[in-house]
Amino acid sequence: MIITSLSLSLYWLDLTFAGVMTPPCPVLRALWIAELHFRCEGAQRPLAAVEVAAAGNLFKVRQFARRALQNSTAAAASPRSGQIDAMILLLCGAAAVAVYAVCCFTVLRLPKCQSRARLDGKTVVVTGSNTGIGKTTALDLAKRGARVILACRDQKRAEAAVSDIRRESGSSEVVYMHLDLASLQSVRSFAETFLKTEPRLDILINNAGLVVEGTTKDGMGMIFGVNHLGHFLLTLLLLDRLKESGPSRVVNVASKAYEVGKIDFDCLSTHKKLAEGKSSLSLFFRYSHSKLCNVLFTHELAKRLQGTNVTCYSLHPGPIKTDISRHSNLLWKMILFPILTLFFVDPVSGAQTTIHCALQEGIEPHSGRYFEKCAVKEVKAHGRDDAVAKKLWELSERLCSLA
Ligand SMILES: NC(=O)c1ccc[n+]([C@@H]2O[C@H](COP(=O)([O-])OP(=O)(O)OC[C@H]3O[C@@H](n4cnc5c(N)ncnc54)[C@H](OP(=O)(O)O)[C@@H]3O)[C@@H](O)[C@H]2O)c1
């Protein structure tokens, strides 16, 4: 009965989404079809249906599903259906556990940064470092002897992070400086204070990020303003200090989500945000667009830094269990909870690619490139579009009143 209900629910979804929603995993799909076939044919040859599914014949899949719907009531009454249900459930469970175990040892395993570099006498700024990936990055760099500036917006949370990092690293060279990326004025004040008080800057890590509705103090869409524009201005204001301290690096924490991002310049010029819409999905897309901005900004920055001793990199940290979805509504939190629990990894693993980009020796020839799992990854064509990167740079300059 359970399998029948599941099958029919999936069939319903299948109809609803015009054939898009068959179970995505081939094993699950095969089991589903075996069950549907059983319903249709009275369990004569359920394995034949597995073969059909393995061959990916979705047309036949739908035919089976339709007939299954018609015959389901009669078939469910059969005594053999209970046994098959149990068997299929067991197989589904075993397949799910096996797939999960394989994922844990392959796609979900993130490599560790191999560099043993020490950073004594060097200064690092990490934005959004009071929690999540930024905090574990800051801790690692403090353990390597760097003077670490936690550039954060909330004094209480930042000071708590400073004392945690000082305690765990044994370093007293960890300080908080106020930075609210949702205000260009705050970015300017941060840069002014920093340039007055800190004689060098060896690594700037633009890590802070959010997924939330709203508008910055300057009237920009919050996601665009914080994830891209604030970091853009910060980097440009600190660039001379980076050059004086070279060889130095800028690391932009982007996301694989950039792959589905696009830059709608009309929307940006008219509404000062990357896209319109109020749904959670549109929020996610705005986040993706902002992460594309990070990738394009890095691409253009590398070009403009040619001939200097400053290099820059963008990266995807991996799927990391942090508080980034803290602003989601309850429904999304409930949907995300099992996914985060099962498929997302700890922030220490999530900091490895950032640390790699910040200090791995020999990656300078890859300036401007995008990294994943501590290695260079070919960026999709729209993430290295010279014309779009230049246009975004020029628009960002105008929005920051730099041009
Ligand atoms: N977690 C993932 O799976 C994942 C995947 C791909 C990319 N990323 C990227 O990784 C980066 C770090 O994210 P995370 O997962 O560590 O998220 P997180 O735990 O939510 O940390 C985000 C940090 O950004 C700070 N922040 C937000 N708005 C700010 C503002 N206006 N000014 C200054 N700081 C601000 C937050 O400060 P408050 O505590 O004050 O809010 C927090 O310290 C982000 O750029 C994110 O896009 C994460």
From TrEMBL:
Keyword Heme in record: no
Keyword Transmembrane helix: yes
Domain of life: Eukaryota
MF terms in GO: oxidoreductase activity
InterPro entries for this protein: NAD(P)-bd_dom_sf (IPR036291), SDR_fam (IPR002347)
Annotated signal peptide: 1-18
Keywords linked to the UniProt accession: Membrane, Oxidoreductase, Signal, Transmembrane, Transmembrane helix
Record field: transmembrane: 86-108
Family: Belongs to the short-chain dehydrogenases/reductases (SDR) family.
Protein name: Uncharacterized protein
